[in-house]
Amino acid sequence: MLRINQLKLKPGHTPEDLENLLIKTLKIPREDLLGYRVHKQSIDARKKPEIFYSYSVDVKVKQEERIQKRFQNKVQKVSEHPYQIPVHGVKKPPSRPVIAGAGPAGLFCAYLLAKEGYRPILAERGAPVEERMKDVERFWKDGILNPASNVQFGEGGAGTFSDGKLNTLVKDKFGRNRFVLETFVRFGADETILYEQKPHIGTDVLSIVVSNMRKEILCLGGEIHFHTQVTGLNLEMQSGHKILRGVQLNGADCLETGILVLAVGHSARDTFQTLYDAEVPMQAKSFAVGVRIEHPQQMIQESQYGKEMAAQLPPAAYKLAENLPNGRGVYTFCMCPGGYVVNASSEENRLAVNGMSYHDRAGKNANSAVIVSVTPKDYGSDHPLAGVSFQRELEKRAYAAGQGDIPVQCYKDFCMNQASTQFGEVMPQMRGNYRLANVRSVFPEELAESLEQGIAAMDCKIHGFAREDALLSGVESRTSSPIKILRDKAMESEIKGLYPCGEGAGYAGGITSAAMDGMKVAEAIIQKFQNF
Alpha-carbon distance 464 to 115, whole Å? Predict the structure, then answer.
């Protein structure tokens, strides 16, 4: 198979146009083109208004070696290296593996184990995705929070109510990334995610994918128990080491197991406390906090593509970062084209926000988190759970600022440290009730000043980013886990039988990387133990 890079076509082209370009580029008769597959597709807007779709395409042709020799600088030979599940181990497993958490890490760990005959037991504190969606809609409409079933907790994890972005910076030479994308397609996602430069699913499609994955895990011999939270560990000493013997569920039932995958997500604060009390090795880690910022999607379109082409191209995204004189970094995160700011709270009397898009990204506004990094120095302690306390304090202030609703403030008023009294041209696109307030008051002044300066600097890259009526809401506090649960090269904790996994354990930063980490933990279990 040969790969041809940098094939350019104008917006509005057809599949036939791409095929014709392949034939023209290779200078072959049509019958010599045996097949092709798009490897990558991106939009090249560096010389707007001259904008092109840029393709990297894998082709099968007659006389491959002759063509490769003729076009040495234009084509390269590639070979497929599909993901391989490792050879099963020989050790008899102490029990069926238990997985705590049905987010991407837990789902993909369970899926691989079920495929290989390990009959995993998946325990999820929240509800099935169909029930969960109703709980979330009720919360957004009436403000009635279900602490166990919300934007953070339930089948699919926190990413279910997001833009569903699937790009990752994780280097992947084993094919896990491709496997994750192909699995999503198999269970309901559009196949374009296999080649788009910045693939996304959207919350409406992701919920379907998650439901279908659950059904497959059950068909393969797995079990899934909803409304079931791990609330304790049964440990014993053996040869100087702590060994897992079982888990406590919902504060009462005990399930004997010697294998527990901790895929609990970044918001499982009560579980973090339980693990700390059980002396599971963990440490505080840096994370980031900030605000959601909203602009008209049309403004972002024109900035990224130019006025002439803005209406002809898909909803535009952006990614910005600034290094400030005070030494802090401010950057955008989880940008949602045509999206909504959502109330993502999971605790009573505390408020957190996130961004979400549906598959069509048809909302009037673009939103993104603008966040600033924080370290243990900011919350004055290196205690493993100090970051959790820091998050909670910010969320408590946000709840008070908005009187229980999402607090919203125009950027001009944020700079002046005064509550907004009216909106400008930008109107909120939100899921959940909102209220004009002073969002700046939520943050320590050094962080607030950093956010103000960062947004002002970003205006040099996207004109209008710091417009006076840009909307800020808060608090964006759940960007990543505030802790890391330590594990060794075999993916296992110092407590034998315990496998920390995914974003909550500090080893991932999004849907795809969490899913890939779940796969890595499943592989470790497969390589060590026999199946059933």
Answer: 50
